[in-house]
Amino acid sequence: MSSSSRRADLAARAAAVAGTSTGTGTGTGTGTSTGTGAGAGTADGADSGTAAAGAGVAAETGSDPGSRVPRTRPVRVTVELSPMEHKALRQWCAQTSADLDLPVVAGAEVFRALLSLMRNDPGVAEQVRVELERTGGSRRRH
Question: Higher confidence at residue 10 or residue 119?
Answer without folding.
Answer: 119
